[in-house]
Amino acid sequence: MGGGAEIDRTELIAAAQAASQHSYSPYSNYAVGAALLFEDGAIFTGTNIENASYGLALCAETVAAAKAMGEGRRDGLLAVAVTGPENNATPITPCGRCRQILNELAQLGSTDPLILCVGSDEVREVRLSVLLPSAFGPAHLE
Ligand code: THU
């Protein structure tokens, strides 16, 4: 489940950072990038999109997951890189809603993706199941 050896961490983090260049975050000035790696090597990226109605902001991870699922992806999610603003020392972790959004894709394909939480001083690696234990998912509705 969600193996580690085949993950090119440098490439995935670079993809997330590149995506964050397109961040629309004039209200928070907090640009986030996300990159989802699938078993066939495909990478889907996203960045946060804010709104004048502040509460409607879309997180980078959610945008990336929507892009992937909107292109037909339903399984094989291996890893996710999340990047914050360039000089943010503390590794960024996905917000609660994004954990749940990612969990849908993970459980559909029975993987436990590795989440790379990127900070300028440290990259924290943690499985999604650790970030979201006892997750509610599609299996509950069967
Ligand atoms: N944000 C993300 O894109 N992902 C996260 O996991 C945390 C927060 C965005 C939402 C908002 O646009 C900005 O970061 C500040 O909260």
What does it look like?
The structure is a single chain. This protein is 28% helix and 20% strand. The protein is built from 4 helices and 5 strands. The chain has a 5-stranded mixed β-sheet with strand order 2-1-3-4-5. The longest helix is centred in the C-terminal third of the chain and has 13 residues, at 96-108. 37% of the residues are buried. Bound molecules: tetrahydrodeoxyuridine. Tetrahydrodeoxyuridine (THU) binds at residues 25, 28, 30, 32, 48, 50, 57, 59-61, 94-95, 98.
For the structure shown, list the relevant keywords.
5 strands, 142 residues, alpha+beta
Q: What fraction of residues sit in β-strands? A: 15-25%
Going by helix content, strand content and strand pairing, the class is: alpha+beta
Radius of gyration: 14 Å
Low-confidence stretches: none
Share of helix among residues? 25-40%
Biggest sheet, in brief? 5 strands, mixed
Mean pLDDT: 96
Ligand species = tetrahydrodeoxyuridine
Query: How many strand elements?
Result: 5
* Biggest sheet, spatial arrangement of strands: 2-1-3-4-5
Q: How many H/I helices?
A: 4
Query: Element order, helices and strands?
Result: HEEHEHEEH
Measure the end-to-end span: 22 Å
Morphology: globular
